[in-house]
């Protein structure tokens, strides 16, 4: 190929290169170790002196011209890449400067964080279970026989059973997490299990989905006194008042024996119910000593292991602590309500700084 043809061809490929990679390939083909122009320069050594004097300046000029063209194209491609990036990475300057701070934490989430913080301090771990639960975990293992009224259609959301398969339910309480915890590990256990539960019920004080926190302690030699102390300690820390009176009433649950319902002493202040005093009582939880049959259903020996359990309505705790009056507002997703009752997203409840936010 003549020098002129080589020049024309190389400059044309530089011009045609669309990407830095394509341009680099052209550079290597011309100026790389075995590139066409480098080969020409190498050949100079074998030429007769006067021939060499004649062609060397031509080759050198070609090499310089090609280098300059490569450099110019490289700059051009860089500029094009930058403008493409500037065009694609537009900033919306009308966005709020701190979007994180404009959202709020829902009071239910806040209360769950507070509960976890308080019980973590008492040595409890947080456990979880599925919301779509097997009939066995939700009822049978908890010593709720098939004819028990808790199973009646008006309470429980049942899924259509799979063919020949088990019937699933939306869990009606967090108690199945007791079963899952006892079956999955080795005692002793100290857990709480906050989460959503479902019952087919809806009015000013009931929503079909609501929240509970389950508590479970299984160890040797556990008795009702441990339950009472734990609940008192929890209620005092949660409401941040020392003069809390708990009223324990005998009750019945198939999965605890004996069973105790717990009311917290309250008083009315300017139209809202406040914790403290004993002029009024509000039921906050059900509890008791875990029934030996339940312990045995989980494969543990009830003669060796005992414990207590409680199940507490989180929504009600939140209403009492933060002064909301209508349960349904929790689930309306009304931004004005959320702004008013929500919590700063970066404020994490801690025992030292106060779990009350
Ligand atoms: N699971 C019961 C309910 O939903 C509450 C409970 C939990 C009672 C644990 C005793 C022990 O009403």
Defining traits:
357 residues, eight-stranded mixed beta sheet, two-stranded antiparallel sheet, elongated, binds phenylalanine
Number of domains: 2
- Integer-rounded radius of gyration: 38 Å
CATH architecture of the largest domain: 2-Layer Sandwich
How many beta-strand elements? 12
Number of helices: 12
Mean pLDDT: 91
Strand content: 15-25%
Low-confidence stretches: none
The structure class reads alpha+beta
CATH class membership of the largest domain: Alpha Beta
Q: What small molecules does the structure contain?
A: phenylalanine
CATH homologous superfamily designation of the largest domain: Bira Bifunctional Protein, Domain 2
Distance between the termini: 83 Å
CATH fold description of the largest domain: BirA Bifunctional Protein, domain 2
Looking at the structure, what is the overall shape?
elongated
Order of helices and strands: HHHHHEHEEHEHEEHEEEEHEHHE
Helix content: 40-55%
Largest sheet: 8 strands, mixed
